[in-house]
Write a structure and sequence with these properties.
Blueprint: E1 37-39, E2 45-48, E3 54-56, H1 61-71, H2 75-84, E4 90-91, E5 122-123, H3 143-156, H4 167-176, H5 185-208, E6 214-222, E7 228-237, E8 243-253, H6 259-272, E9 279-284, H7 288-302, E10 309-312, H8 314-326, H9 330-345, H10 347-359, H11 375-392, H12 401-426, H13 432-446, H14 455-476, H15 479-486, H16 503-517, E11 520-522, E12 529-531, H17 541-567, H18 577-584, H19 589-598, H20 608-612, H21 615-625, H22 628-642, E13 648-649, E14 652-653, H23 656-664
Parallel strand pairs: 6-9, 9-10
Antiparallel strand pairs: 1-2, 2-3, 4-5, 6-7, 7-8, 11-12, 13-14
Helix pairs in contact: 5-22, 6-7, 8-14, 9-11, 11-12, 12-13, 13-15, 15-16, 16-17
Length: 675
């Protein structure tokens, strides 16, 4: 079990006590502080028995306690051991501030000796003598600080606890400081699981304070152990019009990955976080199992008169569309990648490229060239090859004249696709309206046949792309996505796709707005929403009649809000949609509440950069390499810390910045030296 004495706690000083539970009764000064001070023969001063620091005899015992806290954290454990055995002394670590014992993480056999604590304790010599004072104590590294910082590094880098037992890594740590003793992987695993449980409770508590509807996104992957995992992310817009996103959980899907099993796991996660009745939409990864699970979830929510929709991930669908085009030129891409790899390995060619890139102002080229199998990598290779002959002149290399012509034509055809994915990756918040705007542009490009000598090739490419595009529109276009699109102030009704923009959808959206949002009033000054409701009982029938009259007026005003909003021209495409609504929420008080719900619907189930750029390579490697014992806790803790949640161990918030400051302070790491 990890000892938390001396742990730097957020919002607490170094002298603070344990976190949570009843306040502990302080030990008397005589029994604790003065145990470590000896009165000098002259009777005018006291000297610390651990380091020899002298204080005036009239110094307050509280100051003596501060000295022990700052220079000798863990002195209380040393006192307990000295009382039990005067021949032994122990240097307690910086992580033992909480005196209240915690229950063990797992049952241990009674016959075995007591297990050592997580912190490493250095035993002094067993001679019954007093530690002599040193003029300048030698700095020592607190090994528990090292272990806690290493644990954070493991989680941030998505490494399993077993990495601590790597011989090369352990020997490197010992070389830096021989006193360092790394935690065994079992203890690191136990602490990681405890942190996971504590932080999960913090996430649950934060979701209970959300007053708007939530949107979820599903993603799947398979690890090296051939285990299928499901991640569930949640997104909402808070009352300050800031988009919030948090990973709920990472769950294992049983071997027979069916739609029913995905639904079972998904419902378990939603009910655990108590948000199963607050979900408005789900963005899935386009797999048939996910579609089946979302379809059954919609049936269950609709049976409770709750609105719900599910849409495919636009980024994944766009990736499939692009792959449909590239599959016809795989041989050309293979030769192109070989040329780029050769170029990256040649210092002479790299210098030439660097020189001519500056001359021709090719700012988009980043050396060494990206040769990844991502879409951006493939397009950048085509871009380099297309401009290669213009820069270096004709010379013999891997592509034939016909293949060069294909590259030139394909590069021109795919350039708008590249610009679309680049803009998607740069979007701060890829709303449904903005995503549909880009996708509609892509669909228009697919229907255009370029005039070139390879017309037949592009006809085949466009044919395959059109089929995938049609599948997307049939799944993604519905009344909910229409509503989300028109509530984006940059899109409204003018930039919405023609296939989605219909009078019937507008009427359905208006009815939904009047029915569900017209009777919602926003409390002045606090930002919280209150739903009008009539109390039961016949005694209030007259009051209910008054309320109904006012509601009729309110519904008329609500309809005017939507009409006035749509009558105004859209905002510039560069406008931040949430900033716009923050500034106009007082003008559209009811409509803004609806916008908070629907703008949270995610157009993509994951960050577009993970699909189209090399950023996703490292993420996919981490997902692939983590074992079952570490996948859930490591992925969740890492994501929660990135979302702003604090590192929480058994109700104790660990402030790593203060921990590092304490470890590097001049007096914070000094330990006693025995002779």
């Amino acid at each position: 079990m990890a000892d938390m004495t001396g742990l730097p706690v957020a919002g607490d000083g170094m002298e603070g006590g344990g976190v949570g539970g009843k306040p502990k009764k302080k030990k008397t000064m005589k029994s604790l502080y003065l145990t470590f001070f000896e009165t000098a023969p002259d009777g005018k001063s006291r000297a610390c028995t651990l380091c020899g620091k002298s204080y005036c005899l009239t110094t307050a015992t509280g100051n003596l306690g501060k000295h022990l806290n700052n220079r000798h954290p863990g002195y209380d454990q040393l006192a307990d051991q000295l009382q039990g055995d005067p021949t032994q002394s122990t240097i307690a670590s910086m992580f033992a501030r909480n005196k209240k014992p915690h229950p063990p993480m797992r049952a241990r056999p009674q016959a075995q000796p007591q297990q050592p604590q997580v912190q490493v304790q250095v035993q002094a010599q067993a001679q019954p003598k007093v530690l002599r004072a040193q003029p300048k104590p030698k700095p020592a590294v607190d090994v528990d600080y090292v272990n806690w910082l290493l644990l954070r590094w493991l989680i941030s880098s998505s490494f399993p606890p077993s990495a601590l037992e790597d011989s090369t890594f352990a020997n490197s740590c010992r070389y830096l400081n021989p006193s360092v003793r790394l935690w065994p992987k079992e203890k690191a695993q136990e602490i990681t699981l405890q942190v996971f449980k504590s932080m999960k409770e913090d996430v649950k508590a934060s979701l209970q304070r959300v007053r708007s509807r939530l949107s979820i996104a599903l993603d799947f992957w398979t690890s090296y152990e051939q285990i299928v995992y499901l991640s569930v992310k949640c997104q909402w817009i808070d009352e300050s019009w800031v988009s919030q996103k948090v990973l709920l959980d990472v769950c294992q899907i049983r071997y027979q990955c069916t739609g029913a099993e995905v639904l079972r796991v998904l419902l378990s996660v939603l009910r655990e976080f108590n948000i199963d009745l607050k979900i408005l939409a789900c963005t899935h990864n386009n797999s048939q199992h996910a579609i089946h699970a979302c379809h059954e979830l919609r049936r269950e929510l609709e049976s409770r008169k709750l609105p719900f929709c599910y849409i495919p991930c636009a980024a994944r669908m766009l990736e499939i569309i692009i792959e449909d085009g590239l599959k016809h030129v795989k041989s050309v891409l293979y030769k192109t990648r070989a040329f780029i790899l050769e170029t990256n390995s040649s210092q002479e060619m790299m210098e030439d490229f660097k020189h001519w890139a500056e001359v021709y102002q090719e700012g988009s080229w980043k050396l060494p060239f990206d040769h990844s199998i991502t879409w951006n990598g493939n397009y950048n290779m085509l871009d380099v090859v297309k401009k290669f002959e213009d820069i270096f002149g004709p010379r013999d290399w891997v592509l034939s004249a016909e293949e060069k012509s294909v590259v030139n034509s394909l590069h021109s055809y795919l350039e708008p696709f590249y610009k679309t994915t680049t803009n998607l990756c740069a979007c701060k918040l890829p709303t449904v309206g903005l995503v549909f705007f880009f996708m509609d542009h892509v669909f228009e490009l697919i229907n255009i046949c370029h005039n070139s000598s390879h017309q037949k090739l592009f006809e085949n490419i466009a044919k395959d792309m059109s089929k995938t595009a049609l599948d997307f529109t049939s799944q993604a276009y519905n009344i909910y996505t229409f509503t989300a699109a028109i509530l984006d102030p940059r899109i409204k009704g003018e930039l919405i796709p023609d296939a989605l923009n219909s009078p019937s959808n507008l009427e359905d959206a208006r009815d939904h707005f009047v029915r569900d949002y017209s009777s919602i009033f926003q409390a002045a000054g606090n930002g919280y929403n209150i739903q009008d409701s009539a109390d039961d009982g016949g005694a209030f029938s007259f009051a209910e009649e008054i309320i109904r009259k006012r509601r009729r007026v309110s519904m008329s005003a609500a309809a005017d809000e939507l009409t006035q909003y749509l009558a105004e021209p859209p905002a510039p495409i560069s406008t931040d949609a949430l900033e716009w609504w923050r500034g106009h929420s007082s003008r559209y008080p009811r409509l803004s509440l609806m916008a908070r719900d629907f703008l949270a619907i995610q157009g993509t189930s994951l960050d577009p950069e993970e699909l189209f750029t090399s950023k996703g390579d490292s993420i996919h490697k981490q997902q692939y390499c983590l074992p079952l014992s570490s996948m859930q806790a490591t992925m969740c803790i890492k994501s929660w810390m990135q979302s702003g949640y604090q590192f929480n161990f058994q109700s104790t918030i660990i402030d790593f910045e203060r921990l590092i400051e304490s470890a590097t302070a001049h007096d914070a790491v000094d330990g006693p030296v025995s002779s």
